[in-house]
Amino acid sequence: MARIPVITVLFLITVVSVAAAQTGKGFVCDQGYALCTSAPCIPDPRNPDKKAVCSCDAMEGKSFGMKDCSQRKPSTDANGVTKVTSTYSFAQAPTNPILVCPAGKPWTNCLDSPCIVDPMDPLRAICTCDIVRTDAFVTYGGACNTLTCDTAYWSGATFGMIDSGTAVLLKEMGIEKSPLTYCPGMEPK
Hints:
Elements: H1 6-19, E1 21-22, E2 27-35, E3 41-43, E4 51-65, H2 69-72, E5 75-76, E6 82-87, E7 99-101, E8 107-109, E9 114-117, E10 124-132, E11 137-139, H3 148-151, H4 159-173
Parallel strand pairs: 2-6
Antiparallel strand pairs: 1-2, 2-4, 3-4, 4-10, 5-6, 6-9, 7-11, 8-10, 9-10
């Protein structure tokens, strides 16, 4: 097996780091991540007022987050536990329209949250996210049923968060038209 010189490895790491989209408003990385855009969450029994546990998708590819790529790099420990970071991507946009929920309803902010890939299902990740009870929010969850805004702790984002992440992803991926669709009657004005 050929050995790669250390200087080559350092050069490649530098090129990959520079290639990640840095705008001051986040980073786009091409690596493993957890996607919680439609994740159902429940309050964490250890801290039910502040934290929630969310069932998310384990994915590979381009995604947006506020942490740089080196901070979000997946890792597997000696026990085989794989850690990933929850970020934002368009992967669920084709199948899940965006539900808008009013301020004051509980939701979870999973962006840049720590996750563990489910050892029994490598397509799932369990993430620990912050519970939020202020601001109107949007989610890919809820299947356009506004009643779920009251009964679920959906992983979500504010309008500003989704607009910012979407703009950076569109630019980095070279997409002109946003793939996002809103539930009927919920399109932003």
